[in-house]
Amino acid sequence: MAAEQQVQLTDLEPIQLQEVKKQLDQELDHLTTSYQQLKQAQAKFRSCLSDLGELTPSAKGKEVLVPLTSSLYVPGRLADTEMVVVDIGTGYYVRKKRSEAREHYTAKSASIQGNLETLQNTIERKQENVQTVMQVLQMKLQGGRGGGGGK
Amino acid sequence: MDPKAGAIQARLQQQSSIFQKLEGDLTEVITARQRLDSQLSENEVVLKEFTLLKPHNTVYKLVGPSLVSQDQAEARGNVEKRLEFIRAEIKRVETQLKEQEEKVGKKRGEIMALQQELQALQPSGPE
């Protein structure tokens, strides 16, 4: 596969190779941004999981501060430590048992992990492609200086 | 400059600006397609979540700043309808995409033909 690609790349003119590299760089940029976003989403789910861990039956009746805005809090008491309401997306929320919520977030986090791994592989392959293009480009440029250009 | 070459040059410029506009339109359609795709997958995830619900899992819908409880079956129906709508939209945008790509391809061909015409005239220029 790599050899086949090399053959194709060496047929290209330096300007075309630069274009190819530019496009690959753009793709790589996009992929790494997506990777970051996925990482952030996963971190969010994980923090939900650890928050769920805090919510034990013994926390019942404990005083909490409920944020009404980011700067205004009112005191409240934990009346229910068994059920939580989970955001499942597109404006829908579901009341779940703690164990169900934990399953939900664990599954979310795991599915993101799968995506992250696939994405990681894609990024690595892209990086290899960029490397190859760079090498061919360098070869071309050096060869071009000596031999006075290709066909 | 050769008047013939000048005429081609002018046409080339005109066609190029049309081409750029077409390409811009194409980008817009592609963005719309991508947005629909993410909406589709998000709604699919929600629907999957709904199929796993048990009777004690009350469903709430976010209406403005408040959560309003909603019947499970009704919520599922809503999301199914939404999915239907999104799939229909994807089909529509898909045909739009094909049309737009054809337009861009055709225009690219026209521009290349004009460039060749112009190049063919060039050698006769310095003579």
UniProtKB/TrEMBL annotation, chain A:
Keywords: Chaperone, Coiled coil. The keyword Coiled coil applies. InterPro entries: PFD_alpha_archaea (IPR011599), Prefoldin (IPR009053), Prefoldin_subunit_alpha (IPR004127). It comes from Dioszegia hungarica. GO terms for biological process: protein folding; RNA polymerase I assembly; RNA polymerase II core complex assembly; RNA polymerase III assembly. Belongs to the prefoldin subunit alpha family. It holds the Pfam family Prefoldin. This is Prefoldin subunit-domain-containing protein. Residues 109-136 form a coiled coil. Gene3D superfamilies: 1.10.287.370. The keyword Chaperone applies. GO terms for molecular function: unfolded protein binding.
Automatic annotation (TrEMBL), chain B:
GO terms for biological process: chaperone-mediated protein complex assembly; protein folding. GO terms for molecular function: protein-folding chaperone binding; unfolded protein binding. GO terms for cellular component: cytoplasm; prefoldin complex. Gene3D superfamilies: 1.10.287.370. SUPFAM superfamilies: Prefoldin. It comes from the Eukaryota. It holds the Pfam family Prefoldin_2. Residues 76-117 form a coiled coil. Keywords: Chaperone, Coiled coil. InterPro entries: PFD_beta-like, Prefoldin. CDD domains: Prefoldin_6. Belongs to the prefoldin subunit beta family. This is Prefoldin.
